Amino acid sequence: MRWLFLFTLLLVACGEDTKETPPPTEMDMGTDVAEEEMTVEPAPMCPEEGDIFCGGRCVNGQISMDHCGECNNRCIIGTSTCNSGECLCLAGGTMCQGRCYDTETDHDHCGGCGTKCAASESCVDSVCTFINDRAEVLGVLEFTNETRAERQDCGVHGMKNPVGPLQLNTELGIAAQAHADDMAENDFMAHEGSDGSSPSDRADRANYPGLVGENVARGYGSPSAVVDGWTESDGHCTNMMSGDYTELGVGYAVSDSGEKFWVQLFGFR
């Protein structure tokens, strides 16, 4: 009996030793770990008033061309200067989007920032002014007057005798250029503008007081080519050979695809 009692105790003891220990419960370790505070080292204090710390050194932000007023604010050498921490344009210049421009003559900033002149204009004394002496304009005038100086066969309209030369007129030129720009921008060729205007309407807008006639063309690569094309067309030839007309405006524009558009606007008053 004593032996049986000891054996039973041994079994009980061994059973206690063989119990599985339950797995530890998952814990959010973050709750037990203090978050480290992020610290930013302050920039060193520069000894002189007006100095700022840039690129590992102190610079005078009042006059520095590379750090004007603040780090990496660069003034453009030759057109501006750093004065009291601000980039200022030299005499005659105007600051536009961080650069200095002469707004009296600059084509893209004529009279003020962002005031862009048309391709047919130049900036003169801060005003966009129509250019009446471009190579294309003078070329068309020259070949037109050469055509008028000789007897021409205008087909169904008969033979036309020589007539006197035409003179360039600024108002007619403005009207002709407006129509050339319209055709190039909207990809069409017609005497009626995209707004429904007629040649006379456009001449009126340009303050031309006389009567007008118009030739238009597209695709010709040069003044001589387009005048030859008009000469070979009966109606266009008749316009060019009319002795009633004494003045001429020429329009020339190039579309985004590179196609060229031409306008002759004849007038008399």
Index terms:
6 helices, Pathogenesis-related Protein p14a, 14 strands, 269 residues, two-stranded antiparallel sheet, rod-shaped, CAP_dom, four-stranded mixed sheet, single chain, SCP domain-containing protein, alpha+beta, 3 domains, 23% strand, disordered N terminus, CAP_sf
In words, what does this structure look like?
A 4-stranded mixed beta sheet has the order 11-13-14-12, sandwiched between helices. Strands 1-2 form a two-stranded antiparallel ribbon. It has 269 residues and is of the alpha+beta class. Strand 9 (152-153) and strand 10 form a beta hairpin. The chain has 3 domains: 47-90, no CATH class; 101-130, no CATH class; 134-267, CAP (Pathogenesis-related Protein p14a, 3-Layer(aba) Sandwich), CATH 3.40.33.10. The chain is built from 6 helices and 14 strands. It is rod-shaped. Helix 2 packs parallel to helix 5 (223-231) and helix 3 (170-186) crosses helix 4 (199-205). It has helices at 2-17, 135-148, 170-186, 199-205, 223-231, 234-240; strands at 51-54, 57-60, 80-83, 86-89, 94-96, 99-101, 121-124, 127-130, 152-153, 159-160, 167-168, 211-218, 247-254, 260-268. This is SCP domain-containing protein. Residues 188-208 are annotated as: Disordered. InterPro entries: CAP_dom, CAP_sf.
